[in-house]
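Below is one such protein, fold included:
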Amino acid sequence: MKYSPIIAGTMTWGSWGKQLSKKEMAELIQFCVANSISTFDHADIYGAYTTEADFGNAFKASGIKREQIQLISKCGIQYQSDNRKNKVKHYDYSKDYIIWSV
């Protein structure tokens, strides 16, 4: 797999930053791809565990074909959030968690 020379980080696209709407995020995805930025970096914790799903909805709305982009994601960090039942920050690199998170 070949990645674009510049990789777009999505950590601040959602609730941890710009709080982009689905339309704004779709337009940003289109802008990136039109400018040869086709690789997007994610992590399951971004946006309190919401940004990957938001990106997915925006990507669907963008009209960009899946074959045109590459996705990188990270997982393992678990922290307290309204979106998860974690009681303490911890790390989970188990096979089950990795498969579940992607």
About this structure: The chain is about 35% helix and 15% strand. The CA atoms of residues 8 and 17 lie 14 Å apart. The helical segments are 22-34, 46-49, 51-62, 95-101.
